[in-house]
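Annotated sample (chain length 307).
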Amino acid sequence: MAQLRCTGITYAYGGLTVLDGADLSVSAGEQVGVVAPNGTGKSTLLRIAAGDLLPDSGSVTRAPVTATVIRLAQERDMPDGEPLSDYLARRTGVAQAQQELDAATQLLERQSPGADDAYAEAWDRWLALGGADLPERAADVAADLGLQLDARATRELSGGQRARLALAAVLLAQPDILLLDEPTNDLDDDGLSRLEHHVRRSRAGIALISHDRAFLAATVDKVVELDEFTRRTSEYGGGWDSFVTERAAARQRAVEAYAAYEATRQQLTSAARTQREWARQGAARAVNPRRQPGRRSVLRQRAVAAA
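Output written by the structure step:
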């Protein structure tokens, strides 16, 4: 079973700590939702998990080491003029795998040392990512989504068509671990339904970022929350609804704990003030003993009282 694990990830940018000991674990067949307010560092965590960005500290491990990982983030600025078939090959990782396979083939033809192992590794990766039948699968998926691959470029697409093209890349990708950054953006109801169905039935491990609570409730079985203040993560099992319940309970416990702390703090502060006042009065009497009533004064007061 393939697994991707990020442990103790720390990352700072421009003097700002983005992640401070964040964890993320995704296994094959598991759907994980990554949630946090905008700008907290969710996308940075996925970039590090995919190997697109190096952390300042912490570790990212894949088991097995040959496990394939693809990160699909929203691509608002598609390369102008890129053919749709090339776009899908690039986004699914097949284009890069093909380049690696071609390079390994040249090494094999030149009988370079280690060429056999390099070729076998490149071949396995190309097959694992679905390179062998991508053209056929891409044609079927594109037609199902109302897209035409032949002689079309990304610049010719409308906004809705671009959203469906991005969806096509998700549907065609065949990695062991798939990382999705806001995959629901700009999709219509039909697109959302297709994406939801795909995520729920995928054999890949999926970690996804989304602000669509209905989509999260329908798809994920685990939630990782990134705290905007500590920049650390907390993991909640049981899906979105369980996460909402557990988080509310945790926040209530935090409120109660703070109230108890505040009450104790006020009691301790009051006691400290009383002790300081007693100490101040005692010190004043020691410095000016005439302020203390002497024996003669006491006797005189008693005599007056008796008269």
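Annotation: The chain has two domains: 3-78+166-237, 241-307.
Annotation: The beta strands are 3-13, 16-27, 31-35, 57-63, 69-73, 177-181, 205-209, 222-226, 233-237.
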